[in-house]
Design brief:
The protein has 228 residues and is mainly α. 66% of the residues lie in helices and 0% in strands. It is flat and about 60 Å long.
Amino acid sequence: MTSRTSPIKKRLTKDSVVEGALDVAHTQGLDGLTIRRLADTLGVSPMAIYWHVKNKDELLEAMGDRVCRDLELTVDPAGSWDEQLRTLLSDFMHVLARYPGAAPIVMPRMLYSDTGRQLMELSLGLLRSAGFTVQEATQLARHGVRTVVGLVNEPLFTGSVLEPERHAQLNAEYDTIRDGLPPDRYPNILAAWSDLSDDTAPETFNKLGIATYVHGVTAMARDKHDCC
């Protein structure tokens, strides 16, 4: 008699629960992340999830900690303060781009991980070295984090994948709107039409967003230096 070996189910761990939650958040958003949906995704019962996290709040905290833990800083201390700040935000962008659905929950958890603390410490130090007070540096550092979170969650690049038929329908509707715009009233919109709907260049979009923030902070630092 031939025996059959049943497939071995992968052992559920807290890391695998968090990884699964990050995947669900990426496809469904944080609002769509529920314990039951996560359990269905992992092929387990909801009670199996509760063995590793007490509730959704604890799950969200673990997700934020995981993202911060994966952060790798590549800042060159020999660079100017604004160059270091740009690299710092780019490093932060890199890790958040891997987990865009979890980006909003990262900021409250930054001080809970060593790499998160390093990012905030370095950011504050760079801004203070540029002449900002502790209070100003704190607010600017927060704006920097919020800038990256906003860029990563740009709907144009993070929207759900559409079925081909629906995608074609939306393109047809979009073309109808474009064709109905009077050129004398909307010359700039028409000139930028293809770029407004271009969802293939997130890296360019993100790079420009970080540059805008850094240039703004640099101009503020220069103004403080000139007036004092």
